[in-house]
Every structure is written in C-alpha cells, then in structure tokens.
Amino acid sequence: MTHGMVLGRFLPPHAGHVYLCEFAHRWVDDLTIVISVRARDPISGSQRLAWMRELFPFDRVIRLSMENVKHPSEQPPSRAVLKASLEKVLTVRPDFVFASEPYGADLAQILGARFVSVDQARAVVPVSATCIRTDPFAHWQHIPRCVRPAFVKRVSILSADPTEAGALARALAENWGRNGFPNGQGRQGI
C-alpha cells in the first residue's frame, strides 16, 4: 500500500489545490492532506479543514499547528522541527510528497519520501491563493462552490416603496461592479 501526503495552507482552497489533491489521490492508495494552520491566518483553520473535508471526503484531512514552525514556503524552517511536527500528526510515513511549490522536494527529503511535482508552472490551473485573496471575483471560476460563500456579501433592502429599493439595489450593484441583482419580492407582514 502506498501512502501520499500533500501539505498546504489552502488559504483558501482553490482549483489548483483540487487538481493537486486529486492527482495525488489517483497516484497512491492512501492520501493524507495536511493543512498548516496559524492563529493569525486570515481564514480560520477550522473553516479550511471543513472545506477540505467536504472537497476530499475519501482522504484523511488533518491540521498541523504551525505557530512555532515556519511553513516551508517561507524561510526554510528547521528541518528537525518541521519533521518532528509532521511526525506528530501523521499516522503513517508517506512514500510520496506531492506539491506544486518548490519546497516540496525539500519536504520529501526531510520525510524520506519521493517528491512528485504537480503543475509548478501553474500551466494546468493558472491561479494562486494570493490572487484569490486579492480579488476573489476575478478568479471566481477557480473557487470551489463550498468556498464561495466566504467571499460573498449579502444585502437585504427593506422598503415600503419597491421603486426606492430597486434604485438602491441597482446603485449598490453598480458600485460593487456586479452585473445584476435578484428581483425583490415584497413581503407582507414584516
């Protein structure tokens, strides 16, 4: 039985992450997806864990607290500290480490695994989490459906005059660069 591992921040999960994890899932018998989490992350670790578990229900999805350890994409952390942190959360040593970032090769070496590079050039899925955090609507097609609600603002307009409500809705849509808005339905008894 072959074991694989994907490590990422998934901040937020996007189509590139989905491609990476699906590729890894097809390559090995057993896949562990490790989410590196810090308290200061702009999206909570518990939210990202829930999204990844929804996206990959047949894989093991776990969290790794990185409060005292740098993520490999940053300045390289102490190899011994990173290895010890991963060994605490992994139930089995991976045979393969899958990554779309250059740090994957070093991570695989630390764990005694083989490195499998997946779309480092972003040729298959041209997106990054940084791009999505900067402008989610420009990359909407790369955001999984279960993640999209985190980027949507909903506005309810209550007015006795539907004309005023419609005018305000159009002005808000124009201000936010949206092409349309749902038609309102007057509700009696509010």
TrEMBL record:
Q: Which domain of life is it from?
A: Bacteria
Q: Which Gene3D superfamilies does this UniProt record tie to the protein?
A: HUPs (3.40.50.620)
The record's listing under InterPro entries reads: Cyt_trans-like, NAD_biosynth-regulator, Rossmann-like_a/b/a_fold
Chain ranges passing through the membrane:
none
Q: Name one GO molecular function term.
A: catalytic activity
Q: What is this protein called?
A: Cytidyltransferase-like domain protein
Q: Which organism is it from?
A: Mycobacterium kansasii
